[in-house]
Design goal:
The chain is an alpha+beta fold. It contains nine helices and 17 strands. It folds into two domains: about 190 residues, 2-Layer Sandwich (Fructose-1,6-Bisphosphatase, Chain A, domain 1); about 140 residues, D-Maltodextrin-Binding Protein, domain 2 (3-Layer(aba) Sandwich). Helix content is about 30%, strand content about 20%. The longest helix has 21 residues. The termini are far apart. The protein binds 6-O-phosphono-alpha-D-fructofuranose (P6P).
């Protein structure tokens, strides 16, 4: 008889993997797991209650917030507040960082960056959506944590994970010792270990990109798309095109089957659409821990300098050899444009010279 291992049991078992934890990270992951179950309950019946559709508000991204976006954000912040292990939440749904006040939380050691409900435009059409989270230890030791504690680069993450609300609900996370996946068993209300030691195949035959933006893609991306479409039996081409429009779902599929997800710069998103702090960095940490690769076309995502809370980045992420292939095309056909852009952006942000 198969012995069920719950997320809670697994976290405790692996506690020694995490040098800092005196149960702190365990409690943090538990808090996120609890909020995920509450969000899952609402996502699964979104069509039955007045939680579909727009909340009538706009977030800092300029995107109309769905009622479930706002609900999910409230649930995660509330769970992290009551858990007492987190001092700041940086959320896609909040313009500024959210201080978790309270006697215990204000001295807590952890920062959580979160996209509470990614792909929420898919909710009304019953397509998989997800939550993405990233956990850092605060760098400051005295007084109130600040934005500087949040703007750490991706290599400083102590944990990262996602929840996918799909045909089943799964929580997948890493603390830097591999990637493990847990499927929610509604009959017992527990996430149970179902995908131990997840590894993404080094090669794949699925490419995932919104080809509606083709004309605005960098030349290197256009060349890569054409490469994917060429008939070549030896390299199993043409590849299959699959695009769900929900980053978590597209990347989760690629971890299981192999593949690459690409969100390049476009005319509508000259710096890329996806956010570095709470989408690209956590997913990059997970993918690298699963043996994959994640880049902005030129630089490793986890090494990118984080200069602002809602900073965007191009992202090419998935099977190692597929990402390397698109990087080759980018360096051959798009590098010049990229260097100038990077300089201009960093100058604008006041990060490098050009400012007297
Ligand atoms: P587009 C969802 O809105 C999201 O943030 C990601 O989950 C998804 O991969 C991407 O945007 C889809 O963007 O421009 O193709 O609709």
């Amino acid at each position: 008889m198969q012995v069920v291992k719950t997320l809670g049991q697994f976290i405790i078992e692996k506690q020694n993997d995490f040098p800092y934890a005196k149960g702190e990270l365990s409690r943090l992951l538990r808090d996120i797991g609890i909020a995920s179950k509450i969000v899952n309950r609402e996502v699964n019946k979104a069509g039955l209650i007045d939680i579909l559709g727009d909340a009538g508000t706009i977030n800092i991204q300029g995107e109309c917030q769905k009622k479930l976006d706002v609900y999910a954000n409230e649930q995660f912040i509330s769970a992290l507040k009551s858990g007492g292990e987190c001092c700041i939440v940086a959320s896609e749904e909040n313009d500024d960082i959210v201080y978790i006040d309270g006697e215990v939380s204000k001295n807590a050691k952890y920062i959580v960056a979160i996209d509470p409900l990614d792909g929420s435009s898919n909710i009304d059409v019953n397509v998989a959506v997800g939550t993405i989270f990233s956990i850092y230890r605060r760098k400051s030791t005295l007084g109130k944590a600040t934005l500087t504690d949040v703007l750490q680069n991706g290599t400083q993450q102590v944990a990262a994970g996602y929840v996918i609300y799909g045909s089943s609900t799964m929580l997948v996370y890493t603390t830097g010792k591999g990637v493990n996946g847990f499927t929610l068993d509604p009959s017992i209300g527990e996430f149970c270990l179902s995908h131990p030691e997840m590894k993404i195949p080094e090669n794949g035959t699925i490419y995932s990109i919104n080809e509606g933006n083709y004309v605005h893609f960098p030349e290197g991306v256009k060349k890569y798309i054409k490469y994917c479409q060429v008939e070549d039996a030896e390299t199993n081409r043409p590849y299959t095109s699959r695009y769900i429009g929900s980053m978590v779902a597209d990347i989760h599929r690629n971890i299981i089957k192999g593949g690459i997800f690409l969100y390049p710069t476009t005319s509508a998103a000259p710096n890329g659409k996806l956010r570095l702090v709470y989408e690209c960095n956590p997913m990059a940490f997970i993918i690298e821990q699963a043996g994959g690769r994640a880049t902005d076309g030129f630089a490793r995502i986890l090494d990118k300098e984080v200069v602002s809370l809602h900073q965007r980045s191009a992202v090419f992420i998935g099977s190692k050899n597929m990402v390397k292939k698109v990087e080759n095309y980018m360096s051959e056909y798009s590098a010049k444009t990229h260097d100038n852009e990077v300089e201009a952006k960093l100058e604008k942000l006041g990060v490098i010279g050009g400012i007297d």
